[in-house]
Amino acid sequence: MSITVLIAGTYVKQREALRRLLTMEAxxxxxxxxxxxxSALIEAQALGPDILLLDVDMAELDWPRLVxxxxxxxxxxxxxxxxxxxxxxxALELFKRGVMGYLLKDxxxxxxxxxxxxxxxxEKVIYAPLAQMTLGNLQGWxxxxxxxxxx
Length: 151
Fold this sequence. Notes:
Layout: E1 3-8, H1 12-23, E2 28-34, H2 37-47, E3 51-55, H3 63-69, E4 78-83, H4 88-96, E5 101-104, H5 109-120, E6 125-126, H6 128-150
Parallel strand pairs: 1-2, 1-3, 3-4, 4-5, 5-6
């Protein structure tokens, strides 16, 4: 059984490249494409793909709009975000809203394909350097918290 993927991104050439990449994988199938966030959500509801591969850098997609639209994605569809925004705060907020994966657009294609498989399997995925930054920030926060408790 193939993993069905809906590709959502502003740029046609990027969507075409992703389509070519995914169709070369024996266990993946492209369910459709969308050029806007709104059409992506409509298509996700209509098609019910396993994965919505969502480029959150779409011109019309601002932060408040994104977090309000995410719950509209079909319950069966898992969201894997691709972005140029390397922010642990942004990533954590998206995870709180139900996103299952967060990768940077310049991630290696093997990493992207593995992330699709992991998200399909129910695992959460985050861009490795961003995970390291998040852990570093968490360690700093915990150290501050523990120092305040000792005062």
